[in-house]
Amino acid sequence: MEKIVLSPPFSHLYQSYPAVAAVVTVESGERKNAMACAWHAPLSFTPPLYGILLTPKRFSYNLILQAGVFGVNFLPFEKADLIAGVGRNSGRDLDKFAVFSLAVETLPEARVPVLEDAYAAYECRLREHRPYGDHELFVGEIEKIYETPLAFDEEGVPQVHRFRPALYLGADLYTTVSDQTPVRKRGERP
Ligand SMILES: Cc1cc2nc3c(=O)[nH]c(=O)nc-3n(C[C@H](O)[C@H](O)[C@H](O)COP(=O)(O)O)c2cc1C
After folding, report:
1. Which of 23, 125, 132, 184 has the fewest beta carbons under 10 Å from its own?
2. How far is the CA of 100 from the centre of ligand 1 (A)?
3. What is the pLDDT of residues 123-156, one digit of tens each?
4. Distance of CA 29 to CAs 51, 66, 165, 190, Å?
């Protein structure tokens, strides 16, 4: 494939997209908040660690530090409106749960808002946070996973024909997976 070469400063870093557009939720005292998050990743299986990247400018930043726990909600493509709503508005200016009618599951044991629209959500206890350039990596230990059984098979594989994930392309554009039947490749040598 032909390549062109770009050098810093880069106008965007969309090359690794599409990325699953998650919604990070937090509740501290009486205040609930939600924000879109495309920069997130599993970091360790044992213990189960999950990382999210936030700039300190986010209203969610201090709320997560206060709460010591955050939620990572995975929503289907049909909810892209909601993701964009919590990703383009700050909780500093409005109550996103009220304005975007975010419904929360009734889960007495949950320490984070688990969204009704999510097909899965992680509840992560904040273990540490560290700046990397203009973002800060929040490392959370996954203490609970809430998932819709229909969304996963017996191997835990997401059933993307039933719950198509919301994927972010950058520049306010969202897409989802195609109708391609998943193919199993075991990496046998030729
Ligand atoms: C699809 C999408 C993905 C985003 N991903 C991130 C991210 O990974 N990290 C981040 O700090 N902000 C990200 N943002 C921006 C925040 O969601 C946005 O600034 C939001 O208004 C912050 O809300 P808050 O101020 O209430 O915390 C993203 C926005 C969108 C629309």
Report:
1. 184
2. 15
3. 999 999 999 999 999 999 999 999 999 999 999 9
4. 23, 9, 31, 58
What are the structural domains of the chain?
19-175 (2.30.110.10)
- Of 177, 109, 96, nearest to 146 by C-alpha is 109
Closest C-alpha to 122, from 58, 176, 48: 48
The structure's pTM equals 0.98
Which ligand 1 atom is nearest residue 87's CA? Answer: 17
* Alpha carbon of 126 to ligand 1 centroid (Å): 19
Residue 38 Cβ inside 6 Å of ligand 1? The answer reads yes
CA distance 103 to 106: 9
Residue nearest to atom 9 of ligand 1 (CA): 54
